[in-house]
Amino acid sequence: MTNKSPNKENVHQKDESAVVSEAQEAPDQEYSDYTDTELMVTIAARELRDGESVLVGVGVPNLACNLAKRTHASDLRMFYESGTIDSNPRSLPLSIGDPVLASGAAGLVPMYEGFSKYLQAGRIDVGFLGGAQIDKYGNINSTVIGEYDDPKVRLPGSGGACEIASNSHRTLVITQHQKRRFPEEVDFVTSPGYLDGDTSREELGLRGGPEAVITDLAVMRFDDDGEMYVESLHPGVSREDVQAATGWELSFADETGTTETPTTDEIRLLREELDPDGLYIGGG
Amino acid sequence: MVEDTGARNRLADMSTAIRSAINDGDSVYLTGFTHLIPFSAGHEIIRQGYSDLHLIRATPDLIYDRLIAADCASKVTFSWAGNPGVGSLRAFRRAIEDDIPSPLEIDEYTHFGLMTRLAAGARGLPFQPVKTFAGSDLPKHNDNIRKVDNPFGNETVYAVPPLNPDVAVIRAQRADPSGNAQVWGIEGEISEAAHAAEQVVVCVEEVVEEAITRSDPNRTVITSADVDYVVEDPYGSHPSYAQGYYDRDNEAYLEWDEVTKSHERTEQWLEEWVYDLDNHDEYLEKLNTERLLTLDPDSDYATPVDMGKY
User: Fold this and answer.
1) Residues 62-91 of chain B whose Cβ lies under 8 A from any Cβ of chain A
2) CATH fold label, B7-52+165-293
3) φ, ψ for residue B262, nearest 5 deg
4) pLDDT digits (tens, 9 = 90+) for B86-98
């Protein structure tokens, strides 16, 4: 047992006509399907712009950054909480302190320096966040399910998430879309989003805020009041599906779109070069 | 073996260093963010049967999970308690959720909050402001996270007090016998914790001549005046890694996730891998050389710099 077994996931065919027998498979058609994780990675990658500094996590965020670097954002800079600056990993890191993030980095600083001189001072454009629960104002819980002093489930806690949520110029949230993960109110605010909505985030002097929530069902953004709404539904997903997996009455964009699916080139890069063992993208 | 440097010689074996530096009830910080975690020192603390320790680490990792399962601790200060890249720290959770083997008091921060406490401790400051915690629920549960007025403006800001552990056990790739210690790769909180602590134990992959550390002083994270013991302890970070020496043994991190599914199995593991062994040499022997060799990276040397002869 050297690797985690690949996630069992839904595999989506982009087009029924693309389903052909293996013998006939043309190079492009080999990459015409995609898994939920591959879709989330490509959506996240497209949110990143060339030249930006990104505070990355392992798994989907790391793949999204590497995919963006290989497609439209070759000058993306990857930072990790461990104090690595402009990492250039030759293989998939197992943790945010993996040696592949140190070898070949542009700089390495002690953790206190990374959090203070880089994140707090405003040098991080985009931060990635995840968590056990997210509410309609984008507040995230990664601390505890139940009461803090008498937990039902004790989760790992903030790590750097609270300061990433407070000091990045914007954040991207990646999570599975399930009702227990999308309650109207989180059990504990680990990482502040738009708090109670309206101007409550601004009043605390926090920088940025969540820009998009990317799930296996939809892409959501936040309106002027800081409330989450559905911008696009993934192919084959209905409004009812998303609502059923959400703990409050969701708003939808006036013209709710369909999420753009991964290109064959993006899927090829992910499967052949970025995650050849299917460690994170699974199914492939 | 490197020769004795007289009055400045701080070389000790692990058992002596731990016994001399740590007392029951002490606050102890074992450093290293994923990289250079003092596992063998932690195993020695368990073997010597310590109790009532206040353990401090940003990421408790497997080593504090083991110390907690072995009932060495009554309190943990931390900021992210997970098995990095794998999942939960089950022994830590069992102590908090079910008081097994004993109740465990927690004192929780964010990474930046805890790093700032160490930074204030290392610098002799009464408190230090941080731009984090606002809007989070953590301050409601931790009286060490307080709001202060900015004396130069119209805002309030959160602040944390200094943290000065009784003992810091750090790992470095190399040190000379006097304790000048050098790290490359991810430095984490090694230097902050070492300068904040009252006593410092330095465990290294290699003890080298003082001429070597002095040839490259930019690499030094702590110097001899602040070091109490130097322990030569190759592979002492296993199953975490030492940049340039060996990679993380991920199989061990995955195994721990299985082992800790029950407290009984965890105790059996501790029996087999800690209590039944006299020291780290026996641990390495039991682990077997082939497994260790698979963790060795190919060499990739940094270009030497010319310090100039002045």
Assistant:
1) 78-82, 84-86, 88-89
2) Glutaconate Coenzyme A-transferase (3.40.1080)
3) -135, 150
4) 999 999 999 999 9
